[in-house]
Amino acid sequence: VAFQMVPALVFLVVSVGIMVRLSPPLALVAGAFIVPPLLLGRSTTSHLVERERLVLEQWCRIYNRFHQVLSGIKTVKAFAQEADEHARFLGEVNGSQAEVLRTVGIQTRLSASRNVFINVGRVAVLGVGAAQGLRHRQGAALRRTPPRGHPPRERPRERGMAVHDAVLAEEDHLPGRERA
Fold first, then answer.
1. Is 33 in contact with 117 (CB distance < 8 Å)?
2. Among the listed residues 65, 54, 44, 66, the one whose alpha carbon sits nearest the alpha carbon of residue 100
3. Helix axes 82-144, 24-71, angle to 10 degrees
4. Closest Cα partner for 26 from 128, 120, 118?
5. What is the pTM of this model?
6. Residues 6 or more apart in contact with residue 153 via CB below 8 angstroms
7. Is residue 114's pLDDT more than 60?
8. Who's near 157: CB < 8 A, 6+ residues apart?
9. Which of 72, 94, 97, 128 is the most buried (most CB within 10 A)?
């Protein structure tokens, strides 16, 4: 258990830390869709384990009885109870199979609900992430757009070239300097 549980917990803690550091809102959305399947699974799993134990006990009783009947087949035949034993055996088998089918139905619903939560969570995280990305992109575009009535800001390279051109223009006006 320690070789499986400890690495899984370390991975979980590190992953949550990275998610929170990258984007707290996305981490909250992801967390909101992780918790319900865990709670649903926790409550249903204990119920399923108990059902599996009961079904196993039922099958053990059936096969124990079957073994007893086979051992005492002469007695059963002597009292002409073959049909009764056959009906009892089939009834117990049908009951056990019905219980197994109910358990499989519960497991299927649990699995389907977990899958729905996980997939809806994925879509929600993608949606929130896309919205944040668009908001960030629009914010960056707004920061690059100059306010109305103001000239656009020069880029550093353009500013440097303008300074360089101004220096050259001043040098052209200095006495004794002539441009070739």
1. yes
2. 54
3. 170
4. 128
5. 0.52
6. 146
7. yes
8. none
9. 128
Tell me what pLDDT residue 95 has: 87
**What are 57's two structure tokens?**
């006990």
Please count the other Cβ atoms lying within 10 Å of the Cβ belonging to residue 103.
Answer: 16
pLDDT tens for 28-47 read: 988 888 888 888 888 788 88
Element (H, E) at 2: helix 2-22
Q: Give the C-alpha separation, 25 to 19, whole Å.
A: 9
What angle separates helix 24-71 from helix 2-22, to the nearest 10 degrees?
150
What does 124-177 look like in DSSP terms, one character per residue? HHHHHHHHHHHHHHHHHHHHHSPPTTSPPPPPHHHHHHHHHHHHHHHHHHSTT-
The predicted-structure confidence for 115-171, as pLDDT tens digits, reads as follows 898 899 889 988 888 888 888 777 665 555 555 655 555 555 555 566 666 666 666
One-letter amino acid of 179:
R
What tokens were used for 116? 């729905």
How far apart (Å, rounded) are the C-alpha atoms in residues 47 and 45?
5
Contacts 24+ apart (CB under 8 A), 69-74: none
